[in-house]
């Protein structure tokens, strides 16, 4: 395994992070435990979860993923071996069953206390805001369109005050953001620069893959100049970049077969780009999945690459990407395809 540090800390984390959002829906508790056992044995010490998981969000499965991680901690007594990240859900129609009050002080405290109880731990190493409260472009929206009905009042200072107080209590070690824009990222950083008592945002968890490199447009410069690390999610685009859906295939039990509305990475242009990437991988005797993950691993702004799997075979292949070195020919081929089909799946 290879390791990096959470920015502005001495905390060492594996460059591959274990994603967990299928546990409690597509994966059982026993399967989740098996994945964590294997990942830890392979040197992965960084796990990412959320109060919302498993996905898709549903009242009957609310926060089952955190509970599965909690029973694993209790069974093995190895909380000290894991750098644990979790998230508070944002405001949305599909999260009304969790709460409707956004990131108020009471909401953040309620969310954190619930996560701590389910995870059976006294602290979370990295606590993240799952997505912004304001109307902006995330979750597949390519561009920003201002809405005159958006009455959001900038409460970022107050949010950071609450997180600071929870850090002082020892319940959170560091804070991060997720699904953020360049404007939002700089607002969080601005507050901690102007007000020294407020915690600095150290990571941003956003989508990044061969099919979606929009992070490079505005956020990569911020990441490099401000030292805020990317935690890349969906590096395989819901499994699209494994190639298993090519040729109009729809494998039984696959994510898109189970949840047909998950089409974010399956547009006609995305399929064409995926086919090109598949042919490039075949030409160099490497699996498309490992090529796609290995590419993300090369990015200078990356802190950790969040992989997810529903089978042990997938998990082993995904973790194995850390040992893949892409040749200059492969890298040139990737850039050629990207220039022909730039960011087909925002």
TrEMBL record:
Keyword entries, A-Z: NADP, Oxidoreductase
UniProt xrefs under Pfam families: Aldo_ket_red
SUPFAM superfamilies reported for this sequence: NAD(P)-linked oxidoreductase (SSF51430)
Record InterPro entries: AKR_Detox_Biosynth, NAD(P)_OxRdtase_dom_sf, NADP_OxRdtase_dom
Keyword Oxidoreductase appears in the UniProt entry: yes
PANTHER family xrefs: NAD(P)-LINKED OXIDOREDUCTASE SUPERFAMILY PROTEIN (PTHR43364:SF4), NADH-SPECIFIC METHYLGLYOXAL REDUCTASE-RELATED (PTHR43364)
Name by which UniProt lists this protein: Protein tas
Species, as recorded: Maribacter flavus
